[in-house]
Design brief:
Elements: H1 2-20, H2 26-49, H3 55-75, H4 84-113
Helix pairs in contact: 1-2
């Protein structure tokens, strides 16, 4: 941790000297590096002070996730339950999405060729 903070502060000092020499962009970096140092210290502190989830909390989370999976499964499209107009509309939307995906895949393939 001390090496991280020292390195960030050293980089900030280096950027500050460049900023004083006339490099305007270095002002941003001169501020950014000390912020990185503080972020590293905060992350380290948070890792040390975060408590592990209790078995009850894990069970509660698993129940919540199962409930959400069940809701998503229930909300999935069932074409057999749709009337003709809704089925036509959903099919149209699915075709538009498929066309977009095909266009994107063609663009990616073209980029790879160049």
């Amino acid at each position: 941790m001390l090496l991280w903070v020292a390195g960030c502060l050293l980089a900030g000092w280096w950027q500050a000297t460049r900023a004083f020499d006339g490099n305007a962009l270095s002002w941003v970096y001169a501020i950014e590096w000390p912020v990185f140092a503080l972020g590293g210290v905060y992350g380290w502190w948070a890792l040390l002070h975060t408590k592990a989830a209790t078995p009850e909390e894990r069970a509660e989370r698993a129940a919540f996730e199962e409930e959400r999976r069940a809701a998503v499964t229930a909300a999935k499209r069932r074409p057999e339950d749709e009337d003709a107009a809704l089925k036509a509309y959903n099919d149209h939307l699915a075709q538009l999405a498929a066309d977009d995906i095909a266009d994107l895949e063609a663009e990616v393939a073209e980029m790879k060729d160049h």
